[in-house]
Structure formats: structure tokens, C-alpha cells
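Module 6 notes. Inverse folding takes a fixed backbone as the condition and produces residue identities as the prediction. Think of it as a translation problem where the source language is geometry and the target language is the twenty amino acids. Below is one complete input and output pair. Work through it position by position during the lab.
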């Protein structure tokens, strides 16, 4: 079965190939199908954005379509301060890595040195014009106002995000620890996709 993984990013397509090929699926990207449509992510939640993208790209491709969207929610933050689906947008503008670290550490410090947070990865699968399956995978983290020494370019929050399982900054996790975390999450993601497409 052919599946459209709704992304233009090669690394995300390769990620889906590695996880879904064992189920016998052939994974295609937007570029391979010459689909050049931008979907405005105006949803209030990751689920709304994922569903919107899956439906739009299914209509263009006419094959089962998988879409993903992410969001971040921090305990204690008022609704108007929640990052939600706009983690990198601060005061209406796209923030740099440095801007993000400065903003989030300052906000977190208002509630204490550390607060709990949840990353939400929402998966949507459109299999026809009217049928879409959706599920939110949630990962608990601890966010701190103290910045780690190391940085991951493009992923600044890894320097203020602690993985409870290892009690380490995400940026300091070693290869085996990262592989363990990703393996646990990806198993659930790919099994969800397989269950609704088999």
C-alpha cells in the first residue's frame, strides 16, 4: 500500500520509511507526488492542525495520508501564555534560538526554578474524504529556568528541558538514551498508523 507522509522535509520522510517499511507500506512525500500546496496551520491544537493537513493532502493525492503536528503545554502558564502550537512564535514573531531561551527561562522563573510540561505529538490519518483517525501522543518533561551548557541548533528548548526518566537535560542525553526514548514513542506512533491502515 502507498502512503503519503505529508512533509517536504527529507529527514521526516526517511524517519517514516524506517518505521513503516517493515509493515509493507511504500512511503511517498509531497515532493515525489509534485504536490505544492501550503496548508495554513491555524488550528488551536496540534490535533486540529494535523487533521487539517491530512484532509487537505488526501484530497490532492487520493491515497492514505499521514500528517503530524506538535505542541507544548506548560503547567501553571495562563492560557494566553501557553506555547501550544506556536512554540517558536513570541509576541507574534518567529523567534531565534536565543530569543526562545531568553523568553522561556524568564517566564519559567516566574513560577519557580522548575515546572512540568507536556509535549504533544498529534498524528492524523486520512483514508478517504470523510474518514480521519487522530491520536495525541504525550511526553512529560520538566522545564527549568537554568540553561544547560550545551546547545542543539534549531532545538533550543533541549537546553532547558529535562527528561525525567534519566534526570538529564535533553541536550545531554547520549545516543543510547535517545534511541530508547525514540523507540518507545515511535513504536506507539507506527502501531497506531498500521492499525488504521492494515
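Target side of the pair, the amino acids:
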Amino acid at each position: 500500500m502507498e502512503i503519503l507522509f505529508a512533509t517536504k522535509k527529507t529527514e521526516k520522510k526517511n524517519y517514516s520509511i524506517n518505521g513503516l517499511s517493515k509493515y509493507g507500506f511504500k512511503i511517498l512525500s509531497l515532493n515525489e507526488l509534485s504536490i505544492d500546496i501550503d496548508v495554513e496551520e491555524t488550528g488551536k491544537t496540534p490535533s486540529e492542525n494535523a487533521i487539517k493537513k491530512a484532509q487537505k493532502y488526501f484530497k490532492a493525492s487520493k491515497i492514505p495520508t499521514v500528517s503530524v503536528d506538535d505542541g507544548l503545554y506548560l503547567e501553571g502558564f495562563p492560557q494566553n501564555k501557553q506555547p501550544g502550537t506556536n512554540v517558536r512564535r513570541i509576541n507574534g514573531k518567529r523567534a531565534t534560538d536565543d530569543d526562545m531561551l531568553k523568553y522561556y527561562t524568564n517566564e519559567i522563573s516566574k513560577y519557580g526554578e522548575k515546572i512540568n510540561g507536556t509535549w504533544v505529538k498529534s498524528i492524523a490519518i486520512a483514508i478517504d474524504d470523510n474518514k480521519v483517525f487522530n491520536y495525541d501522543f504525550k511526553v512529560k518533561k520538566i522545564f527549568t529556568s537554568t540553561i544547560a551548557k550545551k546547545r542543539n541548533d534549531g532545538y533550543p528548548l533541549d537546553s532547558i528541558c529535562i527528561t525525567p526518566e534519566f534526570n538529564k537535560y535533553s541536550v545531554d542525553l547520549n545516543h543510547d538514551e535517545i534511541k530508547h526514548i525514540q523507540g518507545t514513542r515511535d513504536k506507539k506512533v507506527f502501531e497506531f498508523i498500521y492499525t488504521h491502515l492494515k
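Reference fact for the lab report: The chain has a mean pLDDT of 90.
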